[in-house]
Specification:
Blueprint lengths: L1 E4 L6 H6 L8 E4 H4 L6 H11 L7 E4 L2 H10 L3 E5 L9 E2 L2 H4 L9
């Protein structure tokens, strides 16, 4: 599990402080990656860092444009947390629902 975020390198301090950094393989911020979501390049950099191919990854986010459209453009499976607005994007109502095994969310 990793984080890809449109944030400054300052993201690492709160992750550490909340005890969330340890279970992560990495956290990649847009400032560190020199690009931000929805640019496909940040997703490619995250995949490279995780040594994953797009078909073996799932990006879960809450922003339709940045977290879903950008991810799909990078050929990575995407899942939105939030209400389904009927636009065809795959959604789950909350993080509890998103916590299922990623294979439960693949088409």
């Amino acid at each position: 599990m990793a984080i890809t975020s449109n944030w400054s390198p300052g993201l690492h301090a709160p992750l550490d402080g909340l005890g969330l950094a340890e279970p992560l393989v990495f956290a990649l911020t847009s400032a560190e990656g020199s690009c931000e979501k929805p640019n496909v390049e940040i997703f490619r950099r995250a995949l490279e860092r995780a040594s994953l191919s797009p078909e073996n990854a799932l990006h879960i986010g809450n922003d339709p444009r940045n977290d879903y459209d950008g991810t799909v453009a990078a050929r990575v499976d995407a899942l939105l947390v939030g209400p389904d607005d009927g636009d065809g994007r795959r959604c789950v109502p909350d993080l509890f629902a998103a916590s299922k095994t990623p294979s439960d969310h693949t088409p």
